[in-house]
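Homework-ish question, so no full write-ups if that breaks the rules, but can someone show me the predicted structure for this set?
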Amino acid sequence: DAKTTQPPSMDCAEGRAANLPCNHSTISGNEYVYWYRQIHSQGPQYIIHGLKNNETNEMASLIITEDRKSSTLILPHATLRDTAVYYCIVRGWSGSEKLVFGKGTKLTVNP
Amino acid sequence: NAGVTQTPKFQVLKTGQSMTLQCAQDMNHEYMSWYRQDPGMGLRLIHYSVGAGITDQGEVPNGYNVSRSTTEDFPLRLLSAAPSQTSVYFCASSYAGQYGYTFGSGTRLTVV
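A: Not a homework solution, just the prediction itself:
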């Protein structure tokens, strides 16, 4: 049972911000929102995660709505190397919570 | 170099052969997982472990065995390979709790 919904594909112009949406309307109180990406045939790469506050690191920003039912990953200045499949995952952190991937969003950054 | 190391990177097996995919991490991570990824598809969880001596099944465990005798190693065993197990296999590890997972570079397995 999918916990998140993402658009299958998106396009973005190089140098512009890429905003990737994710719906997680059934998220529970102890579940975090995680974002990973997978560049062609490589292992997935952790990007960022958050609980309820907005988060920023050197790779991206994560904006979580106040009701926590959706979030947006922002790549502020997309480059061609950001072309990848981006996965939004909801996961609890207590006990034996496993990391389960959905289908993700294929982001293509165009020159 | 710190990280998740998977061996071998490539492997061709004949139907019915057995083999072990190795996964080792040197970050003292408690959590480790195995995934498979078929062409054009997402990652599917095979087995995972939350610590030495503890393993559990993921979404697609049939045909695979795991054990976790040490914190560092989490081998994946194929007892009798089948063509349906042709895939790319990724191992990942994480600290317990909310932390993100670090993935290995994958093992590309072909069963003929």
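Now go work out the reasoning yourself. Hint: Chain B has a mean pLDDT of 94.
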